[in-house]
Amino acid sequence: MMDNTDAPRVIAVLGAGAWGTALANAAARPGRDVLLWARDAAHVAELSAERENRRRLPGVALSAGVMPTADLAAVARADIVLAVVPTQALRGLATRLAGYIRPEVPLVICAKGIERGTHLLVSDVIAQCLPGQAVAILSGPSFADDVARGLPTAVTLAAQDEQLAHRLAASLGTPTLRLYHSSDVRGVEIGGAAKNVLAIACGIAAGRGLGASAGAALIARGFSELSRFAVAHGARAETLMGLSGLGDLVLTCSSAQSRNFAFGLALGRGEPVPAKLAEGALSAPVLLELADAAKVDMPIARAVAQILDGAISVDQAIGILLARPQKAEG
């Protein structure tokens, strides 16, 4: 159990993708054990033998303190648990965790999205599956490869208990991975979810060759949409101006390293989209339904959802957005 005086000795990272591996390396320090869990026993065997995640993060050696495991029961030893799985897999993982994780052990959710079917944000999924669990959200402008290679990166860690958020940020931060803490859980998780949808729009524009000016306009107007939506759902406006809002939006909307931008890029070029859908493609229809229910206007997100649904073509979406009535900026 982590308290005000005891530093965490065991950290469990659940999910051995690129981001999970990067965070596991960042968490590994002298005298600390980091459990890197993967459900695929063959993958765990590879990680243990090669000391490198060649499937997801090639060229980056696992830190000495990182111990791959396929045994979820090992979580019972952990002082902090990081859930680094896609949003749509979070409920299944949380259900399995119920028998192992202690309620007072902080569960840091590193997923960005909205659950399909329930329309729940990630903290609400955990509240349903693990009532009373101490929960935090880690989100912000970050690529796994940058963090793994020790390049300077800053993100936000939010928990309703700001003292907990502060302790977690101090425990998980490194000289090159700076964690700012916040108590605005809703703002941080909405920023992470909504920006994925908007990044698809920016990718589509880039794929269509619409130019840098159009890309900048989409980021600016997309941020306006994201902010309206977040404030309508209880977030603080200043949170959206920070790393987990504007910062993450700019990064995700401007680099092909982003799966969501790359997904949109393929759509804009008329190429086959990746077989594994980007998180924003899964969140888009849900985001739009939540926006409509709250009477929040999100024309860019709507265009993305309609393109993905096959209701309109990319060119039709561009025409609709350009034909919108003149209005004051805001």
Short summary:
By secondary structure, the chain is α/β, with parallel strands linked by helices. It has helices at residues 18-27, 41-50, 87-97, 122-129, 144-148, 162-172, 185-207, 212-232, 237-240, 243-252, 259-269, 279-293, 299-309, 314-322, and strands at residues 10-14, 33-37, 66-69, 80-83, 107-109, 135-139, 153-158, 177-182.
Strand order of the largest sheet: 3-2-1-4-5-6-7-8
Proportion of helical residues: 40-55%
Q: How many β-strand runs?
A: 8
Point out poorly predicted stretches: 1-5
Q: Main sheet? A: 8 strands, mixed
Strand content: 5-15%
| Multimeric status of the protein | single chain
Basic shape: globular
- Distance between the amino and carboxyl termini: 46 Å
Describe the structure.
With 330 residues, the protein is α/β, with parallel strands linked by helices. Helix 3 packs parallel to helix 4 and helix 7 crosses helix 13. The N terminus is likely disordered. Strands 3-2-1-4-5-6-7-8 form an 8-stranded mixed beta sheet, with helices on both faces. Strand 7, helix 6 and strand 8 form a beta-alpha-beta unit.
Would you spell out the secondary-structure blueprint of this structure?
Blueprint: E1 10-14, H1 18-27, E2 33-37, H2 41-50, E3 66-69, E4 80-83, H3 87-97, E5 107-109, H4 122-129, E6 135-139, H5 144-148, E7 153-158, H6 162-172, E8 177-182, H7 185-207, H8 212-232, H9 237-240, H10 243-252, H11 259-269, H12 279-293, H13 299-309, H14 314-322
Parallel strand pairs: 1-2, 1-4, 2-3, 4-5, 5-6, 7-8
Antiparallel strand pairs: 6-7
